[in-house]
Amino acid sequence: MHAAGFAHGDVKPSNMVCFAPDDAKFAKQQFLPDMRAILIDFEHCVELKSSHRQLFSGTHRYASRRILLLSQGIGRSDITSADQIEDFTYMTTDDFESLFYSALELLSSKRLPWCTGNIDITASLTKRNALFIDDAAWATQLQSVPTEARPFLCRARTSLIRNPQLAPFVSFEQ
Fold it and tell me: Label partner for 59 (CA 20 to 30 A): which of 10, 69, 91, 146?
């Protein structure tokens, strides 16, 4: 999708279909490294890097920090609402970050930190930022993830920190 110039706009576990390409490995319960996911539900699909009249309409739980900031206008006091809408664009970064949150939630035995209690967008953004800038918060989140999945999530996190535009979702073996 990204190579064709589009963002999914609502990457989340319920918009993915997972399968194991090799039935023999699946039967032996050794399929996780070879598991594949296909995105479905293209209702929120948008063209990359072009302005959109409608602000974010996906699922806030998995939305990227950038999209939440744009949709709430946080930190953009120098522009009017109309200007903000004209400036609202999707990037590959947003899908990759949503995919990261989805993987973290699926591989963890607990909910994402911003999905507990009654948390507003600002508090949610603070907790999301902590995963990227606070190694202690990241280590706490990783405690609920199976040991074999931790290197995968750490590499995905590092990719998003270093170069979110091109962040590949690396495999377990790398």
Answer: 146
Dist CA 67 CA 157 (whole Å): 18
pTM: 0.76
CB atoms within 10 A of CB 67: 25
Q: Using CB atoms within 10 A of its CB, is residue 15 exposed (0-12), middle (13-18) or buried (19+)?
A: buried
pLDDT tens, residue by residue, 59-91: 788 888 888 887 776 444 554 444 444 456 777
The pLDDT tens digits of the residues spanning 88-112 come to: 677 788 888 999 999 999 888 888 9
Q: Which CATH architecture has domain 6-162?
A: Orthogonal Bundle (1.10)
Q: How many residues does this entry show for the chain?
A: 174
Domain ranges across the chain: 6-162
SS (H, E, C) the chain: CCCCCEECCCCCHHHEEEECCCHHHHHCCCCHHHCEEEECCCCCCEECCCCCCCCCCCCHHHCCHHHHHHHHCCCCCCCCHHHHHHHCCCCHHHHHHHHHHHHHHHHCCCCCHHHCCCCCHHHHHHHHHHHHHCHHHHHHHHCCCCHHHHHHHHHHHHHHHHCCCCCCCCCCCC
Residue 47 main-chain phi, psi, to 5 deg:
-75, 135
